[in-house]
Amino acid sequence: MSREVFYRWLKENPELNEARQASLGFEEKEIVDTLWEQVKDGNTTAAIFLLKARHHYNDRGEVADQQNVQVNITLPGAARLAEYKAAIATTHPELVRQIEHEKNEEQNDGIHIDRA
């Protein structure tokens, strides 16, 4: 039987595919059990294989799943005070009003005069 026919039969017959999956599960269990026995008997190669296959270790002992993330933040250069105030005034006029309001309150020694 060709490979193409076999996979077509698996697609067309859910029961056949289910039986295949069950047999693969049994096969995996048997292989893992055999490997564990080898590890218990001191087989270093089997231990290394299990660590790599099941726990994603590499030859350096680091976990391969971990990804290093690098974040670069670029800050603008220093601006003159007048330039900064102009930028703030155009983008956040409400902030400028609040700062001016607070400055007026400080100048009046904490006495608030409502000029509305």
What report would you give on this structure?
- The protein is mostly helical.
- The protein has two domains: 3-55; 73-116, no CATH class.
- It is built from five helices and no strands.
- It has helices spanning 3-12, 14-40, 44-55, 81-91, 93-107.
- The longest helix has 27 residues, at 14-40.
- The N and C termini lie far apart (92 Å).
- The model has no long low-confidence stretch (mean pLDDT 83).
Task: Please supply descriptive tags for the structure shown above.
single chain; 116 residues; mainly alpha; 2 domains
- N-to-C SSE string, H for helix and E for strand: HHHHH
The domain tally reads 2
Sheet having the most strands: none
Secondary-structure-derived class: mainly alpha
Given as residue ranges, the uncertain stretches (5+ residues, pLDDT < 50) are none
Terminal-residue CA separation: 92 Å
- DSSP strand content: under 5%
> What Rg is obtained from the alpha carbons, in whole angstroms?
35 Å
Helix proportion range? 55-70%
SSE map:
Layout: H1 3-12, H2 14-40, H3 44-55, H4 81-91, H5 93-107
